[in-house]
Protein: UDP-N-acetylmuramoylalanine--D-glutamate ligase
Organism: Sphingobacterium psychroaquaticum
Amino acid sequence: MPNIAHTYYPQSGFLVVLGAGESGVGAAILGKDKGFDVFVSDKGAIADSYKEVLVQEGIAFEELDHSVARIMTASLVVKSPGIPEHVPLIQELRKAGIPVISEIEFAAQYTDAKLFCITGSNGKSTTTMLTYEMFKHGGVNVGLAGNIGKSFALQVARASFDVYVLEISSFMLDDMYHFRADVAVLLNITPDHLDRYDYKLENYVASKFRIVQNQTAADYFIYCLDDEETMKGLPLHPTKAIHLPFTQEQVVASGAFLDEQNNIVINVPNHKESFTMNIEELSLQGKHNVFNNMASGLMAKAQELRNQTMKESMESYVNISHRLEHVALIGGVNYINDSKATNVNSVWYALESFSPDIVLIMGGVDKGNDYEMLRDLVKSKVKAIVCIGKDNVRIHESFEDDTDVIVNSSSMQDAVEIASHLATKGDTVLLSPACASFDWFKNYEERGDKFKEAVMAL
C-alpha cells in the first residue's frame, strides 16, 4: 500500500482512463492492480500492441468514441496529456467535480521512490537520458519514465525502483496537483505549444513552474540563471527548495558555472567535493549541451554520485535518436537528423551547433511559430532552406530576405535529394523542422526515420 501521505484521490471505485497510449495503458494496469474497476476510452483507434495488453490484462476498453454517460460515473479520471482542457468531455467532468489527473500524478501516490523531474522547452530528452545513464553507471536502481521510455504507472505497478528520472512536459504538469519532485529541473522556457495556453506566454510559463509545486526545504530546484523567461518567472513562483542555478555567464557559489578555462564547476551544499570537467571532454558538444551536462551533473551530485562516475558518463554518452543525430558523411557533406526539433528554439540550438554552410530542411504543422529569433543565424549560417510539409508560406515570408534559396519539396525523399544538390563538400544538411510532423508523418520519429532512409538511398 502507498504511504498514506501520498494519497489524495479515491483509492477504489470506477477508474476511467482517457487515451490508450503508453501512459494510459500503464495507468489502467496500475489501477487494476490497486483494485479499481477500470475502463479505458479512446476517441481514436487503439494501436494493436496496446489492445493486446488490455485484453491480456482483462481491462474493459472502447475505441473511436467516448461513452459519455458511462464516463461521467467515474470516481477518478486519468487523462492522456494529449487531450486539451477545452474538450467538452473534460469540461463536463470538471463541472461534475470528478477529479481529472495525469498518469504521473496517479502513479506517484503508489511509490516512495525518489523522483528526479525534468522539464523545459528544449533539452529535456537529452538531459533525462544522460542523467538516467549516469545513475545506472553509478549503480543506482533507477527507472526512466514520463515523456520517454515505459509508462511511469506501469513501472510503479510491475517494477521496483529506488529512483525515477522523469521527463515531464507542460501538458503533464497541467494535470498534476499534489505531486512532489524531490529534485525539480527547469532547463529553459521559450514559446512552444502556445495554442494550448490561449496564446499567452505567461500561461505556458506558469505551467512549467508547476514542476516546483509542493517542494519542501529538503528538496532541490535546478534552473538556468541565463534563461530570461525562467528568471522573470522565478519571483512569481516561489519554492522552499534549495536553489541550484546553472550558468555560463556568472560565477555561483552553489550550483554550476563555467570558469575562465571553460571548465564546468559544480558545487552542491553539504557535498564537500566540487566537480570540475573541461567542456572539450564532453561527448555532447555545443553551448546547449553544456547546459544539459550542468543540469545532469547537479542531479548526479544531489544523488551523491562519485565524480569519476559523472566524468565517465559525460565523456561517453551517445545522444538519443532524432536529436542532432549524425546520419552519414556523403561526398564530404554531413547529414544531421534533428527531427525532434519541433519548435523554433530547438532549431536555434541546432544552428548554433554547426558551422556554415548549412542546407536547412524545415517545415510541417506550424504551431504559431515566431521565426524572428532565427533570423541572424539563418543570415550568417544557412545557404538554402528546403521546405517540407503542406503549408510553408510563413517560412518563405520570414526568411526570403535572409537566404539565397528557399524551395518547396513534395516528399522527404525529394527534400533530401534537393538538399544534396544544393550542398557542396564541407556543408551540413540539417533536418531541423521547427514544426510538428503530423501533416506528412505520424510523429517526429517517423519523420526522422524517413530522412535517414532518404539519406542512405543517395
Notes: The chain has three domains: 13-101, 106-316, 325-456. The first strand starts at residue 14 and ends at 18.
